[in-house]
Amino acid sequence: MKDKPETILLGHGSGGRLSHDLIEGLFSKWFDNDILRQQGDSAIVPFAGGKLAFTTDSFVVDPLFFPGGDIGKLAVAGTVNDLAVSGARPRYLSCGFIIEEGLAFEVLEKVVESMAKEAKKAGVLLVTGDTKVVDRGKCDKIFINTSGIGSLADKHRNISSGSTIEPGDKVIINGSIGDHGMAVMAARNELKIVANIQSDCACLNTLISDALLESDQVKFMRDATRGGLGTVLSELVKGKSFGIRLNETDLVIRDGVRGMCELLGFDPLYVANEGKVVMVVGKEDAEKALFSIRQNKMGKHAAIIGEITKEHQGKAWLQTVVGGKRVIEMLSGQQLPRIC
Amino acid sequence: MKYIDEYRDKSIVLALANEIKKTSTKPVRLMEVCGGHTMSIQKFGIPYLLPKTVELISGPGCPVCVTSRAFIDKAVAYSRRGEVIITTYGDLIRVPGSSSSLDIEKAKGADIRTVYSILDALSIAKENRKKKVVFLGIGFETTAPGSAAGLVKAQMAGLRNFFLFSAHKVMPPAMETLIDEGVQIDGYVGPGHVSAITGETIYLDIPKKYGLGVVISGFEPVDLMQSILMLVKQFENNDPKVEIQYTRVVRPEGNLKAQQMLDEVFEFGDDWWRGLGVLKNSGLKIREKYAMHDAEKKIEVEVEPTREPKGCICGEILRGIKKPKDCKLFATACTPSNPVGACMVSNEGSCAAHYLYNR
């Protein structure tokens, strides 16, 4: 790290630049190995002559239940999606619970039931787990960690790194942006905002596997969670010999989300999603992939939102609604804590 | 009518851009003095739509940016007292003080809470009668009436444990000082929300004394383009005056009720602005009548000596003399996640806006 921080701040867990600094400056330094250096959504590891995708994620969302989902659904979908966007077929999940003394059993049961339902929908098995209970006040109700493994077909091995992306490729997203972050914000009654916003929290593995069946030109995928679409795109082009042009007019932003963003001063580009995948697809196959995605319930509002360009190497550019132009940077500083 | 799409209509914006291009024959420098404008200009890529003759520069319009380091240091000192709960708008949390910041103090255990309104801070005071709840009041004529209303409510409710730490400021002295100091500008994009409170009369001296136009503008792309066009026309015709573009919100006389509220609680006093120094009668100080809620009078703390960061040119950037890119620290030592100067902290700061949208 450039400057070693004295203390860990909320921002270090934001998924933005501070998290990035923490990973680079501390974790990568000590844990360094070839596989870790891939830095994809999942680690791609060799196994028994083939390849496995392996990932882990922790969930601390506040409140536990919000319109469109809950911490349990999120814990399954988050890990399933991290595997799926690496091109893998999600298979097995583990789950670890850290529970605060005094939590109502009913609440825990609701969360577990929700996890089971979501896992069934996604076709994954929860095969191992662990439970710890801590003194009242030592954690906030319940925290969940899930890890997952999935099998990776050899032809999809480059999706995680995006190493075959070239100018002319199209950027696709499977629907509206910013729903999850704003749904959670609205559900926190501290804001006293009544907004009809549903989180988009959902497993995307079927949508993704259908698209992969339809086209072998899917060159990169990432789920646009914390940091939002903007952060995904700026990370994708960082240090690369291509750029991205994003058309603001092609983005789908629901009225409620947009209204809340305007009110609170957030840019929807940086607001978290939990059911959105960004895909880079070869030019010829883009329409075909889009058609396939739109067949899925989670992809009805899918759209081609941009293109890989030769110009602006290493930068993501937004063509604004009014015809202006600006750079899209990684999220920095304005993140919302505990939204997943 | 949602007041969003209508004012982001590409065809109208492009038509205005065309009109500006046709009208503007000589170089003109326009300054916006509202952080909301700075944000909007960068977010929508407005500079890209303007002819080379029209240059936009950002002035001291971001409340966080003009606030002194000493204010943060004092807030940090308050937060270190066990009986104090600090309540603040989120922007201030990450602003670096001389040796600490509120987010570092929070991580170390201080009770610091982000609120969206002073009314939330009042509720916190009600629920924590044994604690002293300090609200950090920053901002211009836009946020100051809220703070004033909060103090009136606290007084009425007998909330003796509620305190305002005021760094509230008023805009016109800064606008005049910039011209006095010789900053080369040809017109002001007038702040929309400040003017909604104050009305247009506070700017009347600017065309009269200095021969510069002021167009009070809204925040959407159509608003900004139209305001720029109005300013360019004034400049080309040598006809400086105060005009309101943002007529759907700003009335010439302003919001009288809010003005009364301000007058009830605050009186003018000299105040320190980053980049501008001490400006006469530019600060809003709490009147004697409300002294029991004045944090500075009622809570004693020892504050560390203020140290300004080396190499930081926030001051010159706030005066519009230099641009963020002229700063050696910009995007190297100073980034939004590790800000050195205040202009990089707030979303509305010109360095943060340039970093995020225009690098």
What does this protein structure show overall?
The complex is a heterodimer of chains A (340) and B (359). Chain A contains 8 helices and 14 strands. Chain A has 340 residues and is an alpha+beta fold. Chain A has 2 domains: 33-156, 60s Ribosomal Protein L30, Chain: A (2-Layer Sandwich), CATH 3.30.1330; 170-328, Phosphoribosyl-aminoimidazole Synthetase, Chain A, domain 2. In chain A, strands 9-11-8-12-10-13-14 form a 7-stranded mixed sheet, sandwiched between helices. Chain A has a 5-stranded mixed sheet with strand order 1-2-7-5-6, covered by helices on one side. In chain A, a hairpin with a 2-residue loop joins strand 3 (65-66) and strand 4 (69-70). Chain A is globular and about 55 Å long. The mean pLDDT of chain A is 92. Chain B has 359 residues and is α/β, with parallel strands linked by helices. Chain B has helices spanning 10-23, 35-43, 63-66, 69-79, 102-107, 118-127, 144-157, 172-180, 192-198, 205-210, 221-236, 256-265, 295-298, 314-318, 350-357, and strands spanning 28-32, 54-58, 84-88, 112-114, 132-137, 162-166, 187-190, 213-216, 242-244, 266-273, 277-286. In chain B, the strands form 3 sheets. In chain B, strands 2-1-7-8-9 form a 5-stranded parallel sheet. In chain B, helix 1 packs parallel to helix 11, helix 2 (35-43) packs parallel to helix 15 (350-357) and helix 7 (144-157) packs across helix 12. The longest helix of chain B has 16 residues, at 221-236. The A-B interface holds A 2-3, 6-11, 16-18, 21, 190-191, 249, 255, 258, 262, 264-265, 267, 318, 320-327, 329, 332-334 and B 2, 4, 8-10, 13-14, 17, 39, 42-49, 94, 103-104, 106-108, 116, 120, 221-222, 335-339, 345, 347, 352, 355-359.
